[in-house]
## 1
Amino acid sequence: MPSSYLPRPEHKFTFGLWTVGNTGADPFGKAVRSALTPVELVHLLAEAGAWGVNFHDNDLVPIDATAAERDKIVADFKQALDATGLVVPMATTNLFSDPAFRDGAFTSNDPKVRAYALHKTLRAIDLGVELGAKVYVFWGGREGTETDAGKSALESGQRFREALNFLCEYAIDQKYDLKFALEAKPNEPRGDIYLPTTGAMLGFIATLDHSEMVGVNPEMAHEHMAGLNFMHAVAQAWGAGKLFHIDLNDQNYARYDQDLRFGSQNVKAAFFLVKFLEDVGYAGSRHFDAHAYRTDNLDGVKAFAKGCMRTYLILKEKAEQFKADAEIQALLAEINADDGSMNQFFGLYSTGKAAVLKAHEFDRLALGKRGQPYEKLDQLTIDLLLGAR
Ligand code: GCO
Ligand code: MN
Ligand code: MN
């Protein structure tokens, strides 16, 4: 029955250096695992079966590295990629760890910080492209406020827009084959982060000079922190042609950012998400932005990485079962039944169509009497997920 759920390159599973490299440090306690080098992390990911590895500029090259140190680190990293066959589909900038960014990067009230953020990102884009990245992620972790007394939300939006317009022009100018993906998060580390949801990002993207090269990188935990349905956000992004990347993990709704192993908390939400991505034929990276429990040692980190991919593949198989299940499909056919009699009213507007529609008599009471067998369908889904079908 079950396949071996082994990850293969065509599944496009990726992890960030910061995910498997997470040492377990949190605001209440120090690291519990020793830091591995980027080269060691590449080998760990290759052994786990990942296809790709992503990084922030400073996951790879420390912020205070000399030019010679940078070149050596990049050369070693490239060698590890060659040796393992891992690719770098995405890169990003760390615009949140350094104290310089305590009040934001592109939205900082200090013009010197805003200029430094651009400088750092230009160089990080060069580094990402050098290593093969085709998607460049922007997560504005510090772009926000604790108090709105001193920072204008309107002005911050304009600053963020100008920065992205500038960076788009840079990528075009350099003839880089690169798309940008904006990642939303409602809070943490700021009290409130600007553009807190994927929907807000989509609205913002439409205001950019080069909106065609800018999409989103929705993250499951972040939409859940905002109390939203992640799959719905992903569907909106997909429908708009803007699903350039995705961050998979898990989260128990409105808590601190938990970054749990994919599918470990909300199995049903994870199922509908995987089903959606597979049904529409999403062809981008399946990136896991999560980390192992602080309780665990290195063997737990490996189990975490394998677990993310295994759960995805199990849910993918469940999605196929859902499609092949005669009883489920019969219910769906009943739910979506359409005798075509209303087609005359849909589609393109015309004066005549509106007139005929206004004159049509509807049996409103009969419409209200029709129920839908969603309880039955949902229980069949649960049975399927729990292995009872
Ligand atoms: C978080 C974010 C980050 C970003 C990463 C890449 O909550 O910390 O999800 O992990 O995804 O900085 O942009
Ligand atoms: Mn996150
Ligand atoms: Mn993320």
Note: The CA atoms of residues 80 and 325 lie 44 Å apart.
## 2
Amino acid sequence: MSGFEALAEYRIVPVVVIEDADAASGLAEALVGGGLPVAEVTFRTKAAPAAIAQMASRGDLLVGAGTVLTPAQVDQAADAGASFVVSPGLSQAVVERARERGLQVLPGVATATEIMAALELGLDVLKFFPASNVGGPPAIKALAGPFGGLKFIPTGGVSLGNLSEYLSVPAVLAVGGSWMVPAKALANRDFGAIKDLVAAAAAAARVI
Ligand code: 3PG
């Protein structure tokens, strides 16, 4: 499966901020065990490339790199075995490098003007960020009017509590969020708690 087909199937992308790559294998086990074998590992920490490499090498987990801001980070993500890259905003240089490296790319947009710039680059699936701050589900519905062919992956402020509001919007392919992988649980190696949060999210997505 390509990145976006898989994301459309799982409908939820756990966003990971990992401080210590030693936690990657327990985290991967929790994601797979909880029923969401997908992760966006953000380049906000130095551990990200090593964590991506460990998680991707399992072969049963779709691993992307998040918070990718530069072409050099695209290279790091590709070298680590990531399948897709996510950016908070739209950078033509990042999009082009991702394509050169054979990675799916998911740039962030928040306005109609940014969406038009993304369309000019031939993109048709976009991150909507920071979703809850820029209008949430009603904003996505409004943007889906003029941009009918586009799909969005809203991220930023999505939680178990508002998941159904997002996933019931037809233009929403999937959502992203960090609520399933709390920093404290990861630091404490509480993989059981993470697995439970992932399973609850997966179950909620199934009934929408
Ligand atoms: C992201 O990295 O895309 C967001 O910061 C995640 O947002 P959240 O922490 O509100 O889920």
Note: Residues 191-206 form the longest helix (16 residues).
